[in-house]
Amino acid sequence: MAILQVENIIKNFGTTQVLKGISFSMEEGTALSLIGSSGSGKTTLLRCLNFLERADEGKIIVKGETLFDAKVKENSSEEELRRKRLHFGMVFQQFNLFPQYTALQNVMLAPTLAAKAAGTYDAKAIEEHAKELLVSMGLENRMNNYPHQLSGGQQQRVAIARAMALKPDILCFDEPTSALDPELTGEVLKVIRGLAEHHTTMIIVTHEMSFARDVSDHVIFMDDGRIAEQGTPEEVFEHPKEERTRQFLASYTREGE
Prior knowledge:
Layout: E1 4-13, E2 16-26, E3 31-35, H1 42-49, E4 57-62, E5 65-69, H2 78-85, E6 88-91, H3 103-118, H4 123-136, H5 152-164, E7 170-174, H6 182-197, E8 202-205, H7 209-215, E9 218-223, E10 226-231, H8 233-238, H9 243-256
Parallel strand pairs: 3-8, 3-9, 6-7, 7-8
Antiparallel strand pairs: 1-2, 1-4, 4-5, 9-10
Helix pairs in contact: 3-4, 3-5, 4-5, 5-6
């Protein structure tokens, strides 16, 4: 059974239809890259999956549980929305760390709040898990630093650890290197590549074509709110079937020359 099934997701902003019937599925332990021009709907799709936006039509099913069905009238409480979001960990472009907290405190915050709400609070266990995550990000010497004391790449690695702290089913990245200087991009991509090697289930919105080709099990090319083409990295990057895909990839090849 697929870990995620997305069926006919449609999203409108006013009279503008941004997502025009998106359907796909993915298996546990795989990495899916979403590529396409700016404005093609990639980030909006991620936001719908994370319940930061509500789709106008469609279904979202995780591990066989229907988390969203536009045909079913919902009056979801904030508590119910939080429960649904626990299935997804989100890493944003701009890090979004709390400046008043250290790296360790940033990673511990969400698990602490969740555990207190559930009546299962164990401060020592939460701290140990947060430290393990930061060590895995190569930040063992930066745990007590505040965000302003960290480079952009280090902040993004803290953000990745924070997204993993609640042990989500699917880790989502929204252009995780777009806010970084080129020299810092490599360290974040290395972390994500390591997660892929450990079969972390991931959806990655990226403009790093060579990275998407190397790290992904499946690639979706979006164009004008639709899936224009999808397949394995070899199929999409080496043998694209659609002319629009070839045009898009050619533009990135030219930019890299």
